[in-house]
Design brief:
The complex is a heterodimer. Chain A is an alpha+beta fold. Chain A contains eight helices and 20 strands. The mean pLDDT of chain A is 89. The longest helix of chain B has 32 residues. The C terminus of chain B is likely disordered. Classes of the chains: A alpha+beta, B mainly alpha.
Chain lengths: 345, 277
Amino acid sequence: MAKVSLENVTKRFDSTVAVDDVSIDIADGEVMGIVGPSGCGKTTALRLVAGFETATDGTIRYDDEDVTPVPPENRNVGLVFQSYALFNNMSVLGNVTFGPKMHGVGKAERRERARELLELLDIEELADRDPQTLSGGQQQRVGLARALAIEPRILLLDEPMTGLDAKLKQTLRQELGQLLDDLGVTTLYVTHDQEQAMSMCDRIAVMNDGHLEQIGTPAEIYEEPANEFVAGFIGTANLLDATVTDGRISFGFGDVDAPDGLRSSGDVTVLVRPDDIRVGDGEGDAAVEVTNLFYQGEHIQATGTLADGQELTLQLDRSLTNVETGDTLSVGFDPETLHVIRSTK
Amino acid sequence: MTERFQRGSLSARFGRPVVKLVLVLTLVFLAFPVVMTFVSSFASDWFGVFPSGFVTIQNWEDVIVGTGVGADVAVGSSLAYSTGLALGGVVINLIVGVPIAYAVARYDFWGRDWVNVFAILPLAPGIILGVAFLRTYPDLSTSGIALIIGYSLLKAPYMVMAVQSSFQSMDLQQIEESARSLGASWPRTFLTVIVPNARTGIIAGSIISWTLAAAEFNFSYIVYSRGTPPLAIFLFNNITNASFLNAAAAVSVFFLLIALVTVSLQIVGNRGTIRRV
């Protein structure tokens, strides 16, 4: 295990800048997520850490060792891909012992280590199976066991759950989260699925267009996003145009108190999460005309239009089955749940 | 309309049986000459519609021992010679063709499309390549080396195509990168992970290119000048100079050989699918 640092790392492919001056410090034993939309540079960042790409500028360190020029086979990183990339010419046990064998571990010891990992991942009965005959979930576990067998300095997970069904994804997410906690292995988890990242990672780095937009704990990213992109990418967000004057936030549809300690003034964008909006208590700050309703099982998501024409997404209790499109709901905002972002418009 | 719906359309009712019939007829049409040739190689006469005078091994003896009028050498020496030549061609194709197939499937490089085109298009018909060899390398052309090089050039496309399709069916980049992250150098990754994963394509390519090389007539006919004749020339001599029944035995030797090679390579391919540790 090691702490891993990306220091002002840039990667250019001809005229395209895939990763632009990114700095991330991953503490020893920490699970760091990198999230962002397709093409944001998150996979390139992972490949830079693994050694499959060489940084155009900047330095990558494992502990204090500069590994920027070190080839991947000498970095001792465990890698699990979306496709798992198991070696079909070997049995499951062969896959798991491959890494230790390359590291010169003796036959008896590598078999012992592989058996222990297979047992830990609850797939010891698959040891002699052909990887092609395994289900997606089983292959994922084998891929993980194979990556852990070399006792990696850092574990790199590249969208490891993308191909799995929702139920299995949920189960594996819990198991993998627990496993990473137990093992205390430094992990870089790359995914476009912000929900997975939120539930599994100690901290999350949000990337967009090669830039690092924000880095922080899941709660910080969700509740105090640095900008509109982060606010919109993580969770469902209402981003409302407003003006701050004298401790009040003026929306086109009315005024509300600003949160305590707000320093911004002038034109701003206000983030309010749907689950922070009070609905239908009669003492609302605004009225919303419901335009769409989406039943989502645990709750009902409603979208509506405010008096000034801005759109608002609400989360309704599923008991509110009498609400219909066209109805007008009164909504209230709690000042402490409003997050003010400097307006970029 | 209901009645027609219940009966189904014409294609639903007769489509499958018609396709089966066409398939069976095609197979019979293709297999019949082979079977007849094999059967007649054990006959002593063939004057009417069907051969007669079963069972004799005289035709096989003529071919195998080399006492027939068709050729003055035993089939064994021609067979061994051609087996070696074709094997040489396959070895060259494995050494050159597999990396080319890998490079084209794995990397995006300048001129990739041209490499692909030249690798998978047969460069020239055997007869043209043969004449070119004779002109360019007059000394080399009378040796077995010319035959080996010619066979490998002519049959390379079959090897490259078969192996390339194997490479394209796997996630080559992620498999390679997984192996390297586990500590394997690139050569080791290529030899212990990439090549064994493409085993099916490599075996298929070897079977096809070996079989076609062993039977290559045009190039052999132009380049071969003296000494033990390659199998194709041996068969040709038997077919043109001897009775049809002798020729049938000679051709049957080749059929049997191809069947034997195909089956044994398939067995080798299926065994060892999973390497135990």
